[in-house]
User: Fold these one by one.
Assistant:
Number 1:
Amino acid sequence: MDHATCFGYFNCYSMESVGIWNQCPSGTHFNPNANQCVSPATYQCPYNRCNNQNRANMVILKTECRKYQVCATGKIQSCPISAPYYDEVNQACTNILPPYAVCAL
C-alpha cells in the first residue's frame, strides 16, 4: 500500500531494494492484508475511495452503508428511509444491509 491512495502499492524485491510504485487495475483497491487488488466493497480503504473507480458513488466508511459520496462532486448523500442502505456494488439504495466489509462499523 502506498499510504496515499486506495489503488497504489509498492513492489519490493528485497528488504534493501527501493520499491517500485504500481497500481491496481481500474475498479479495484489494493488490500495490504491480502497483498492483492480486490473489489472496493471487500476492503475498508481509509483514503479517497472514489479514485481509480468506474462507479458514480462510493460508500462512506463507518456509516454502516447509510451514507455515500458522489464521486463527481464529492457531495455526501443518504438514502431514503424506505431504503436506508447504499449498495456500492449495485449502485442503488436498498432496504437490506449489504454484506460487504465496507458496511461494517
Note: The chain has a mean pLDDT of 93.
Number 2:
Amino acid sequence: MPLTVRDVGIVPSVERFVSTNYLLRHIVVLALLAALSLCTSIVAYVLALHYGHPTHFSSSDPRLGFQAGSAGRDTMDIISSCASTLITCIYSSVHFDVPRSYAHRLPFLKKMRSRDFWLELWAKVTFWLLGIFSPEMLVLHAFYEYMIARRDVAWMHANGHPGWTTTLAFAADMGALVGLTEEGLEVPVRSGFALHEQLLRNRAPGTLDCKALEYELADHTKADLLFKIITTLQIVRFFIGTVARFVVKLPVAPLETVTCAYVLCTLMYYLLWLHKPYNISERIPVRVGPPVLQRSRPVAQSAPSVNSVERAKGGWKQPFRSFWDKHGAPFIEPPMSEADRLHGSERMWQSSPYMTQGSFVAAAASLFVGLAHLACWDVEFPNTNGQVLWRYCSVFIIVLPIFEFVIILGAAIIDRHWVTEAMNKIALTFIVIYCMARLVLLILLGHSFQSLPAGAYDTKDIPWLSFIPFIH
C-alpha cells in the first residue's frame, strides 16, 4: 500500500504532536503562518531600510563589501566555512525513524519513480531545514524522545526486563522492532510497554534476549565513523578559528558568531540522541525465549535504597531533599498514566506530562541562539535602521521563548479550560512574532556582508590557522 502525506507527515514522528486526523489541516495552518511571517518580515525590513539613513562609518574603521580573492580570506570563505560546518553537523546528528515503506529496497531507476521514496525524502529534507532555521525545535523534539525512552526503560526494568536499555527503548520508539504473532505476522511496536503487552504469556512476559537485540541493532546501524570524525574535526577547527579571532581582537562576522550557537544546539540534540540508533532502514523481529515463572517485583516494592535510608535519618539536608521531592522531582519526572506510557511515543499533547518541561528546554535552547545574536549588538549595516532592527529582534528571540514557557507553566498550574484556550492564543501570537524576528535576522545576516570591518578579512595575526585543514 503506497504512503500518503498522512503516513509520512511534515517530519518523522510528527504524530507525537499532531493527530493524524487533523494533520493536513495543521499543515495548511502552519503554511499560512509561515507565509504570513515571511511576508510581514520582508515588508518590515523594506520599510525600515526605506525610512532609515545611510550609515556614516568612521575613517579609522573602514568597511568593505563583498570581497573576492583577497590576501587573507574573502566573503565566500566565511560563508562556505559556516555553511559546511552547519550542514555536516546537522546531517550527522539528525536521527530519523525507520522508513514506513520499502522504497529504499528498489533499484535506483524505480526508486526515482516511486512516490513513497520522494515523500520520505521530503520528510528528511524538512527535518534538515528545521535544523538550519530553527535548531531549538529539534532540541525540543529530541528531548521528548529521550524522556519517553527513559521512562520506558524504568517501566521495563520494573516489569521483568532488566536488560532493557535506552538504545532498545529508542529502537522500539522509532519503529525498528517488531513483535511476531503466533502466525508469524509482524506487529510494529512503538514502545517497550507495547512490546511487553505483545509478549505476555499467562500473565508473565516472555524473556527477551536484549543483548542479542543490541548486537543486531549495531549491525543494522549505518553510522559512518569516518564521517563523524570529519564532522568533529570541522567543529573543532571552526571553533578554534572563531575563538582565535576573538583572542587577537580581530573582527568576527555575525554569521560566524550565530553559527557557533547553532552548532551548540546541534550538540545538544546529538547528546539527547546519543543512544538512538542511526539511519536504520529495516525492522528487526524480536526473539522471545520461554516465559518466565516469576516476574521481578516493581520498583515501588523493592528493598529501600541507600539514599532512602539516609533520607529517613534526617540531617541538615532533609529540608532540601523534601523540597526537591515535592517540587523538583515531579517536574523532572512527572506522573505518567498507563495510557500516557502506552501512547506516549505517538501523542504529545499540551496536557502531556512533559509539555512544561519541553517548553523549558526549548526556551533554554533559544537562549543560546538569542545570546549569539545579542553578542553582535554593535554590528553596523549600510542603513542606520539595520542596527535598530537587529537589536529589537535579538531581544525578541530571547524574551519571547521565556514568556512562552511562563504561559505554558501558568496554564498547567491553573488547569482551567478557558485559561488554557486564552493562553494558547497568546502563545501562538508569540510564536508568529518569534518567527518574524528570526526571518528578519536571517535577512540581516546576509545584509551584514555589505559593511563588514576590513579586519574581518584579515588573517595575518593568526597565520598558523591556515595549517589546520578545513573542508569547504
Note: The first helix runs from residue 5 to 8.
Number 3:
Amino acid sequence: MKLSFLLTLVVAAAAQQTIDVTSKTAAISAAKAAMGPLQQFYAGNTRGNGAWIEQYDDGHWLIQWHETGLYFDLFYKYMQYSSDYSRLPFVDKEMQITVGSNGDFLDGMNPTVEIAGRWNDDIGWWALATMTAAETFGKDGIIARNNLLTGYNPTYLSVTNTTFHQIWMDWDTKTCGGGIYWSRIRTGSNADLKSTITNVQELELGARLFALTGNADYKAKFDIIYAWLKSTGIIDSNYLVHDGVRDGGCTVSKEIYSYHTGELMAALAVMYQATKTQTYLDEAHKVFAAVRTYFVTASTNVLDIEPSCAAGVNCKSPTGYYWAIYKGFANLYVATTDNAIKSSIAKIVQSSALVNFKGCDSNWYCIRNLPVGTGFTMQNGTNPRDQFETVAILNTLAIINGAPPTLAVPGGGSAQSTPTSSKSAAFSIVSALGSLAATAAGWFFI
C-alpha cells in the first residue's frame, strides 16, 4: 500500500472516524476520547491489587504485571501535555495500592515478591510511570493527593528514586565486565541473564532523574551502563540492540526487540536535553537510523517490523506493540536539532497512525475482537492492548505536532497543588555537573 503525504493528512476509520494527523489540536482531542476505551475494561479485569489480572483462574493470560506499569504511564504522559487531569484519581488510586506503605514496587523488598516474578525490568516499567508523574507534578508531587493516608502518599520522585537504586543493586562487575541482572535472585531460570531491557530502562530512569534533580550520580551511572552496552557488543556496529549476555561465556544473545531500541533512543535523547553534550544526540541519531532501517518498511514509512518475531517465535500473540519506540520517537523529535530527522520521525509516526487507526470507531475505541483463546487477551478474545498502542501513537502525535510535554523545572517545588501551573513552566536544561570519561570500544563521553 502506498501512502502519499499531502499538506494535510487525514485518516478515515470505521464508523466515520477521521483525524488530521498533522494537527496538535486533533491529536489532543483524539487522545482525550481514547482515554475512555483505555480505561473501559480495567475495573472488570483487576483483583483490587492495583494492576490488571495477569492470569485468569483457568490459566489464560491477559495483561502481565509489568504492562500495567506501561499502561499507567500512558495516562500520566497524556496529562503531561494535555492539562486534562480528569483520570488522575483513577490512576493514582491504583498506583497507591501498588506502592503500598513501603514506597516501592517490591513491598519493601519482600523476598517472596522478588522471587515470585517482580524482576528488575518489571519494576522498571512502573518506575518509568512514576517518573512521568514526577516530571508532570514536580519533585514534591505525591501519589493520590485526593486520598491522604498516613504512610501511603509518597512522592512520585521518591518511589522512582528508590526503584532506580533497587535496580542498581543488581549491577555486577564479577562477570562480563558489568551489567544489571534481569532477575533479582541468582538461582533458577534466567538468573544468569544480564538483560538489555533492564539496563536500558535504568539508562532512561537515570537520564530523567538527572534532568529533574541535577544529581550527578545519575549521569555517572548512565555513562557506566552505556559504555558497558557498547563494549559487550549488545549495541552492535549497526546500532542494533541485542537481548543481553549470560554469565559463563558472556556471549551476546542476538534477539532484537523494539522495546530495547525504543528505551535506548528515549534515554539518549533525554540525556542530550539535560546536558547539551553532542555525543548523546549523535548516538541517539544512530539508534534512530537503525530503527528506520530494521523496524520500518521503507516503501510505506510504517513501523511494522519486529526483527525477531518474523516467525512468531519468542513473542506474544498478538504481536506488534511498539510503545517504547513511539516514546523514543517523541523524545528524539523534541531533542534533535536536525530538521531532516524531525521530518523523518514525523513521516513514520503519521504513516503508522494512518494504518493503526483504521480499526478505530467514532468514539476512538480501537480494540479488536480476536478469536476466543487468543493469548494475552480477555477470555472472549477482546484485546485491550490495541488501545495501549492507539494512545501511545496519539501521545507521540500530539508531541510532534507541537504539544511537547513541559517538564517540571529542576530544583523547583511541587506543581501538584495547581497542576496546570506545570504546563506553563519552561523546561530548563540542566548543566552537566561533572564529566565522566567512559571508554567502550574506542568510544568516549567528553
Note: The radius of gyration is 21 Å.
